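User: Need the bound-state model for protoporphyrin IX containing FE:
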Amino acid sequence: MDHVIGYNLARGLHIIAVIAWIAGLLMLPRFYAYLTAGQPGGELEASMLKAARNLRLIILGPSLVLSWVFGLYLFGAYVSGDWDRPLGDVLAGVPHWFWGKLILVLGLSGYHGFLSAEGRRLARGERRHSEKFWRRMSEIPFLVAIAAVLLATLEP
Ligand code: HEM
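Assistant: Bound-state model below.
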């Protein structure tokens, strides 16, 4: 797979994409917290809704896609050379840390989807959660990121 882009370049681009993704996931619930603290229909609400929408469109959407594209590319390169073997053998050879990481990143993608859906609800004026709830939620991506990075570097 090294003929498209090199493994180390893909690793670097993967890390850049996940930095943007995690940064966005840390900010978005904060915007929702500020918004929820403001008057319904007020100026703060309008500016936070706009900031949240831009963050989702410009940073979060593209960085989610790029994190997955480069991550799956790395995965393909990691197990490459094995593709002519039966699929069962290839899967059996996948290291354990990768399955753990896959569960974490699927969870993080689900969390991303949840935030996007809640953003659309907030834009319709539905405030289903408290300011405190959104502050709590903004801690989740950091905890998941710690686990995902250590799984990728320690490869336990
Ligand atoms: C979106 C789905 C993702 C997939 C499919 C994926 C997959 C992979 C794969 C296969 C590698 C190569 C590991 C190696 O060369 O040893 C890797 C590297 C890495 N990933 Fe991910 N990853 C994903 C998301 C993430 C996230 C969310 C983070 C951080 C929060 C992350 C952090 C890293 C780091 C730091 C490395 C470099 C590790 C090293 O070079 O030793 N990845 N990823």
